[in-house]
Amino acid sequence: MPINNNNDITNPIVPCFPNELENEVREGLDKIGVEHVSLIVLSKDESIIFESLESLSNRISINKRISESIEVYIESAMCHKKNILNFSYDNILDNRIFDHEKLSIITKNLSKYSAFSPLSYDHKMVVIFHSIESLSEHQTKHLQLVSDIMIAWSNSWVANNTMLHYWKKYSEPKNIDITSTLTKSEFNVLELLIKGFTGPEISSIRNVSKETVRTQIKSILHKTHCHSQNQLISRFTQVQWTINFLHRGVYS
């Protein structure tokens, strides 16, 4: 999901636990009777940048209804103390829930356990667990540990994506008018470098000497203010479409 604030993460990758950890957490939640998990990460302006709603046992189907009221769930969770798991009966899902396992209607409100936590870079996260029966004290302690894991992991995800955001800005060409700084031949060499060809291969493709290609690469590096071919490729891979549009891949 896009983010409105330019200082936040852009184009976030989808969070993913390591498989072993994810499986252990999932099995542990299922054993204590948690039927559904919702994980939401918010940007500094409290826009939702990630929303994961998952049924663990498929005993109840509430994904769509939670998604429709997600702002209410977030607001409710953020009214409580940070990092502390809070219990209440869910009065947001006002319709009766069908129990697929028992083929019957659950007439009482589901048990809801939620936690809110501030994250790095002014982000926030909310996690919500639903169960049919209220959990015991021992089960609630287990759920608090899972909540702590999700908070710590969400922090690492935000930090990682923030780093990628700033790296993208760092690696993009800055104040460089590509059309006026590179010659047509240099454009063609740059295209081939981005596509993974080496200097000798470019020399063969363009039917020029290796020394000519080396000179052209040095000129490209100088004009684009890049310190190495790796930096050059990293920066201009993201604008390959612009180069293709302007020069249509002419190699002569």
Overview of this structure, please?
Helix 6 (184-194) crosses helix 8 (210-224), helix 6 (184-194) crosses helix 10 and helix 7 (199-206) crosses helix 8 (210-224). Strand 6 and strand 7 (124-131) form a beta hairpin. This protein is of the alpha+beta class and 252 residues long. It folds into two domains: 19-170, Beta-Lactamase; 178-247, Winged helix-like DNA-binding domain superfamily/Winged helix DNA-binding domain (Arc Repressor Mutant, subunit A, Orthogonal Bundle), CATH 1.10.10.10. The model is unreliable at 1-8, 10-14 and 241-252 (pLDDT under 50). It is built from ten helices and seven strands. The strands form two sheets. The protein has a five-stranded antiparallel sheet, with helices on both faces. A two-stranded antiparallel ribbon has the order 4-5.
Structure at a glance:
The chain has 252 residues and is α+β, with helices and mostly antiparallel strands. It has helices spanning 19-31, 63-68, 70-77, 137-171, 178-181, 184-194, 199-206, 210-224, 229-237, 240-247, and strands at 34-42, 48-55, 86-89, 97-99, 104-106, 111-118, 124-131.
- From the N-terminal CA to the C-terminal CA, the straight-line distance is 42 Å
Q: Please state roughly what percent of the residues sit in beta strands, choosing from under 5%, 5-15%, 15-25%, 25-35%, 35-45% or over 45%.
A: 15-25%
Give the CATH level 1 class of the largest domain: Alpha Beta
**Which structural category fits the helices and strands?**
alpha+beta
| Overall residue-averaged pLDDT value | 83
Low-confidence parts: 1-8, 10-14, 241-252
Q: Level of helix content?
A: 40-55%
Please count the helical segments: 10
Largest sheet: 5 strands, antiparallel
Here the CATH topology of the largest domain equals Beta-Lactamase
In the CATH hierarchy, the architecture of the largest domain is 2-Layer Sandwich
Number of strands: 7
Helices and strands, in N-to-C order? Answer: HEEHHEEEEEHHHHHHH
User: Strands of the largest sheet, in order across it?
Assistant: 2-1-7-6-3
Rounded to the nearest angstrom, the radius of gyration is 26 Å
The number of domains is: 2
Task: Assign an overall shape.
Answer: elongated
